C-alpha cells in the first residue's frame, strides 16, 4: 500500500482503490471454540498448552500476563 501511495503522490485525481482480503474459515481450538471468543488469558493458556510448555512455567507466564493486562 505504501508503494502505491508513493507512486500516486503527484496525481491530481485518483479512482477508488479497494483492498480485497480473502479470509479463511475461522481457526478453532480443540474443534470447539472460535479463537475470537477467548479472553486474552484463555488464548495464552491454550497457546502454552499447544506448545507443550511446562505447567509451572505456564502458570508463571500467565501470572505476569495477567498483571500486564490489568495495568
Describe the secondary-structure layout.
Layout lengths: L1 H6 L20 E2 L3 E2 L5 H11 L4 H16 L1
Antiparallel strand pairs: 1-2
Overall 3D form:
elongated
Class from helix and strand fractions? mainly alpha
Largest sheet properties? 2 strands, antiparallel
Whole-number tally of structural domains: 1
- Specify the number of helices: 3
Write out the strand line-up for the largest beta sheet, numbering strands in chain order.
Answer: 1-2
Query: How would you spell out the order of helices and strands?
Result: HEEHH
Distance between the termini: 34 Å
Q: What is the average of the pLDDT values?
A: 82
3D architecture notes:
The protein has one domain. Helix content is 46%, strand content 6%. The chain has a two-stranded antiparallel ribbon with strand order 1-2. The longest helix has 16 residues. The radius of gyration is 21 Å and the shape is elongated. The chain starts with a helix and ends with a helix.
Amino acid at each position: 500500500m505504501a508503494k502505491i501511495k508513493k507512486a500516486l503522490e503527484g496525481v491530481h485525481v485518483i479512482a477508488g482503490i479497494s483492498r480485497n482480503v480473502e479470509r479463511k474459515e475461522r481457526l478453532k481450538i480443540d474443534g470447539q471454540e472460535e479463537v475470537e471468543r477467548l479472553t486474552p488469558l484463555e488464548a495464552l493458556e491454550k497457546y502454552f498448552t499447544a506448545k507443550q510448555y511446562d505447567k509451572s512455567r505456564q502458570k508463571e507466564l500467565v501470572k505476569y500476563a495477567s498483571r500486564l493486562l490489568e495495568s
